[in-house]
Amino acid sequence: MKNILCKCLVASAVLATLSGCSNDDDKNLTACEAAGDACTSFTVIHTNDNHGRFWENSNGEYGMAARKTVIDQIRHEVERAGGETILLSGGDINTGVPESDMQQAIPDFMGMNLLGYDAMAVGNHEFDNPLSTLDMQSTLANFPMLAANIYDKNADARYFEPYRVFDINGVKIAIIGFTTVDTPKIVNPENVDRLTFTNPQDELPIVLAEIEANEDVDMVFAVTHMGHYADGNHGTEAAGDVMLARSVEQGQLHAIIGGHSQNPVCMEGDEYADFAPGDDCKPDQQNGTYIMQAHEWGKYVGRADFEYMDGELTLAEYSLIPINLKQEDESGELVFITEEIEKDQIVYDTLLPYQQRGQELLDVVISYTDGKFEGDREVVRVEQTNLGNLLTTAYSEFVSNNFNVTADFGVMNSGGVRASIAEGDISYRDVLTVQPFGNFVSYVTMTGAEVEDYLAAVAVKTGGGFPQFNHVAMDVNCDAETVDIASLGGRSFDLEDDYTFSLIHFSAAGGDDYPVINQHKNYIDTQLTDAAVFREYFVANPVLSAADYAPVEGQLNFYRNGALVKSCAQ
Predict the structure, then answer these.
(1) Which of 123, 189, 391, 523 is at 20 to 30 A from 70, Cα to Cα?
(2) In the Cβ-directed half-sphere of 163, how many Cα atoms lie within 13 Å?
(3) Residue 570's pLDDT is what?
(4) How large is the average pLDDT for residues 399-406?
(5) What is the pLDDT of the chain when averaged over all its residues?
(6) For the residues 129-138, what does the mean pLDDT come to?
(7) Phi (first) and psi of residue 125, to 5 degrees
(8) Is 484 helix (H, G, I), strand (E, B) or coil?
(9) At what angle are helices 345-362 and 106-115 packed, to 10 degrees?
């Protein structure tokens, strides 16, 4: 891996003179090198949004073993050049892969210890489990979890360390942690009922004052789980890194290492660049603060080479290094985009038993059905089925049981139903066969008038867009593309009432040509995957009768040319 430290040019002949270099040597020295001890170089290595990906995927992409190899290469290169490194995570270690989820992300934290992480931001998904699980993970981690804006109501104090000071090659850097203030809205309230999440923009000046009063530092960084939104346009999400950088005077916050939005922060002006693996990447800079994020899942390792001279911080070089990512060649075969990265053997051998145990857990029986749940493509895309009812019931009940709202009904696009469930025992592997995409369950509250418009738009969809419903009683006019709603969730329909319904975020974002509603003011993305929620429904219902989920005759009627049909596809 080439040396990308100190790429700035020699600033002047004076620097060369001070360093004792001749004019011939000037051509080969950077300003930092020429300055000698007056300039300090260091490197920040970073990842974010691990989401259970301690192991490589089925195509051999990413994984902590290969990540370790790259991180070690960077460390060795930087140290040979006289610099030092720090390894940071933007949070969300939990949730996303069943092999990790069913082992409480223990393999992920074990892997982070092996990789030598120095600190992490606390992500919202760290609260998908009870606090006792998070406390266990915090004890397991050989590095601090940082969150300045999370307070324990019982103790009237912060629940995590607000910051940690690191000496990196002689430069003292205070690194502050922040977590999105949206967290209580997108996790089970019971998991955070003893916590208060303050606005990071309000908390930052408080922490800066604490650092000034108690520490002697050269600069301040933040490691955050708040999201990066170009030019601060965060929509319905809580304000993220850009707004945090703009909230203080220039020079108070030098860099933000982020997560949550799960995008590669590579900019062209105020817009995102069309970034592909291996491309150059220019991180954002707002109000003098560098802002960076390395996409998700350990697909990339971010490398930021800094120079510190005369009280000024400069980003000399930045890159996102792909970790064994692949693309199709001309023949359609998946090939490595860059040269294959060897796996670190110690990390591989340590995590292999966790992967094997995870595979075993996928086949553990979690429920039983006395009949087939119908998800065959040729059926589920043209008519209501018991599996469609089961899915929408699972998701709407999850919303009702966990988010202090009552979901009146559920909607599921049939293109997201990928298989049937046969009579007999049901395992998590069966769940993943039915719902393999890892979509997040979401919900929205709308007025009756908005719901009527929404249902009129989706009810007439065909193919993968054909909707599966639960607790919806209405007539659909396929010709006029209108609906006559009798009741939702057992309540008589009223245009003036409010109704809440569940769906997956794929549909909410306009997938399968559904109306885009993920910017609605009352839209909530729970950021819990459909498969995980579906699994919990089976665990809570260890014996199911397929007949109990059969569509109720006469409740949902489709008409074309005045005749009753199974769907608008006919």
Answers:
(1) 123
(2) 24
(3) 77
(4) 94
(5) 93
(6) 96
(7) -75, -10
(8) strand
(9) 170
Q: What is d(CA 521, CA 448) in angstroms, rounded to the nearest whole number?
A: 15
Write out the two tokens for 359.
Answer: 């595979």
Give yes or no for a contact between 159 and 195, defined as CB atoms under 8 angstroms apart. yes
Return the number of other C-beta atoms located less than 10 Å from residue 474's C-beta. Answer: 20
Strands (E), 67-205: 84-89, 119-121, 145-146, 150-152, 157-158, 163-168, 171-179, 195-197
pLDDT class of 33 with cuts at 50, 70, 90: confident
With 60 as the cut, is the pLDDT of residue 9 above it? no
Q: Which residues, in sequence order, are bridge partners of residue 167?
A: 172
Question: Annotated catalytic sites, by residue?
Answer: 49, 51, 92, 124-125, 128, 225, 260, 262, 377, 381, 418
Rounded Cα distance, 157 and 134, in Å: 17
Q: How many CB atoms lie within 10 A of CB 97?
A: 24
Q: Which amino acid is at 180?
A: T
Classify residue 83 as exposed, middle or buried by CB count within 10 Å of its CB (0-12, 13-18, 19+).
Answer: buried
Where do the DSSP E strands lie in 10-131?
A: 39-47, 84-89, 119-121
Pairing of strands 255-257, 289-292: parallel
What pLDDT is recorded for position 236?
87
pLDDT one-digit tens code per residue, 76-124: 999 999 999 999 999 999 998 999 999 999 999 999 999 999 999 999 9
